[in-house]
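Lecture notes, unit on protein representations.

Consider one protein chain, 126 amino acids long.
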Amino acid sequence: MGITGFDPASSPETSAVRRLQSTRLQTNVGAAFQRLDQWARNPWRRFSLLALAGLIGFLIGSAITSVAGVLGQMDPVAALVVVLGTELTIRRRRSSEPSLKLPQQLLDLGRIGFLYGLFLEGFKLI
């Protein structure tokens, strides 16, 4: 206790959990994921979204290796970007909510397509 007699450790603000303010952007992004999940309840729509995620990942993977191969001096930097990107998506998977199933599946298939594109470009060099 200080001179004023106020003990900050016993105040109700320190014992309660502080929640972040719910902003309009945060609620819109959350609602967009829910709307996308609702729209993708149809199996064909879900399959098409997942196929697009895999193909876009493949496109990005093959584009990165093509650009890095042409520049020549960017190989270590491109390798660092690839490793960091895949590690971040893996860490995102571990810390995600189980209720967000579709975005997680899209991220996984994008990563699989990305790595498939990298391996295919690597086998072209052999």
